[in-house]
């Protein structure tokens, strides 16, 4: 471990705060570090490994593709990109898909589409406070958190931020320059804040009345995380644009811009591109994710295990007064703690062999693989209880 850390210290930019762990193996909900210690992973790469580490169906698809070809330029067709786009459209809404490499890239594509649609007079995009849309200049400007913007001025113009779940604030922000609204159905980095049904209904109606594009960022909520393939399905709406990433690739880097049929021609040849977007190896992995969800009844598992996880956390709440509000949907759970900083709890969990995340300083973000079992949850709750007991 010391050798690994020395190499990082000498050659890798220090843009992350890292736990003192080097993960070298993964299998399902479990990972193992370079010292041979095993951990229950209840936050697998910000939900990237949503179907668990090395899911057999993902590995099979990728292994088969490794024997064929790894990369195909988007100047040509490849066997799997159309197949994957068809799957995404089947579960979302009639339209077309552009493939990129990350959630930030997918959101950049959405921003470009909105600007092109409104050009030249309408260019402003309304986003939500406490939102998170990426780390590029445009997406961090779209993000409704000042902490990610410090030191990067001047930022691109054309973004407004309003409180989440506040329809009056949204209405007040709309002008003749407004071309789109971008929001997460459930804010992840913002603290697992769930959109109210009435709020989304009114927001959607206003967008239709004023020809404002509704862009739904499902980078973290896609691929069954909330109990449905996509979180917008809970709200009886059809977005104009949806962005995907993280769990879609089963551990491989992918982003997707899904454009409603009404706006499929806004971005034409030469207006947008991605060198590695939709490569055969990545599409193979994503198709493996769809297979896993479909054939292993994982949406049903998310709903039943999500209920069970919340039940077990509520039991802990009776024992530990520092546990406050529990929120979320499916297996996207936030636990607000009555302390200023929960980083000590996260570090304690690492020592106990449990990997969690802390966001907004005092909210535990718990997002296990959607393959998780009751036994896994019981083990995780026991480890968390041990840490809380020490505090």
What does this structure look like?
This protein folds into two domains: 2-54 and 297-390, Alpha-Beta Complex (Aspartate Aminotransferase, domain 1), CATH 3.90.1150.10; 57-295, Type I PLP-dependent aspartate aminotransferase-like (Major domain) (Aspartate Aminotransferase, domain 2), CATH 3.40.640.10. It is built from eleven helices and 17 strands. The chain has helices at 2-11, 56-66, 81-91, 103-118, 137-142, 167-173, 197-210, 280-295, 298-319, 343-352, 374-390, and strands at 23-27, 30-33, 38-41, 95-100, 124-128, 159-162, 178-183, 186-187, 193-194, 213-217, 241-244, 255-260, 323-329, 332-337, 354-355, 357-359, 363-366. The strands form four sheets. A seven-stranded mixed β-sheet has the order 4-12-11-10-7-5-6, sandwiched between helices. Strands 1-2-3-15 form a four-stranded mixed β-sheet. Strand 8 (186-187) and strand 9 (193-194) form a beta hairpin. The model has no long low-confidence stretch (mean pLDDT 97).
């Amino acid at each position: 471990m010391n050798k690994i850390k020395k190499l990082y210290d000498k050659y890798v930019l220090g843009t992350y705060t890292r736990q003192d762990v080097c993960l070298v193996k993964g299998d399902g909900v479990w990972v193992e570090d370079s010292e041979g210690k095993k951990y229950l992973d209840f936050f697998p790469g910000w939900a990237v490994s949503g179907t668990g580490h090395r899911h057999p169906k993902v590995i099979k698809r990728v292994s088969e593709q490794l024997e064929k070809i790894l990369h195909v330029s988007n100047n040509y067709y490849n066997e799997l990109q159309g197949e994957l786009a068809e799957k995404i459209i089947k579960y979302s809404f009639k339209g077309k898909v552009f493939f990129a490499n990350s959630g930030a890239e997918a959101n950049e594509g959405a921003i470009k589409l909105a600007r092109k649609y409104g050009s030249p007079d309408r260019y402003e995009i309304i986003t939500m406070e406490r939102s998170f849309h990426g780390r590029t200049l445009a997406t961090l400007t779209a993000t409704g958190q000042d902490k990610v913007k410090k030191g990067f001025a001047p930022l691109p113009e054309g973004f407004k931020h309003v409180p989440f779940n506040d329809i009056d604030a949204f209405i007040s922000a709309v002008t003749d320059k407004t071309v789109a609204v971008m929001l997460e159905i459930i804010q992840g980095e913002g603290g697992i804040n769930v959109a109210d049904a009435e709020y989304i209904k009114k927001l959607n109606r206003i967008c239709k009345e004023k020809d404002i594009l509704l862009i739904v960022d499902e980078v973290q909520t896609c691929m069954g995380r909330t109990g449905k393939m996509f979180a917008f399905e809970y709200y009886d709406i059809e977005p104009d644009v949806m962005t995907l990433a993280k769990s879609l690739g089963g551990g491989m880097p992918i982003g997707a811009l899904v454009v409603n049929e009404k706006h499929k021609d806004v971005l034409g040849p030469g207006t947008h591109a991605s060198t590695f977007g939709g490569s055969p190896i990545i599409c193979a992995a994503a198709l493996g994710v769809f297979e896993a969800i479909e054939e292993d009844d994982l949406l049903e598992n998310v709903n039943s295990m999500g209920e069970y996880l919340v039940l077990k956390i509520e039991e802990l709440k009776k024992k530990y007064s520092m546990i406050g509000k529990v929120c979320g949907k499916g297996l996207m759970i936030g636990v607000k703690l009555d302390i200023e900083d929960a980083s000590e709890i996260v570090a304690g969990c690492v020592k106990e062999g449990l990997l969690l995340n802390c966001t907004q300083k005092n909210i535990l973000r718990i997002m296990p693989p959607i393959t998780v079992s009751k036994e896994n949850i019981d083990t995780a709750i026991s480890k968390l209880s041990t840490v809380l007991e020490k505090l």
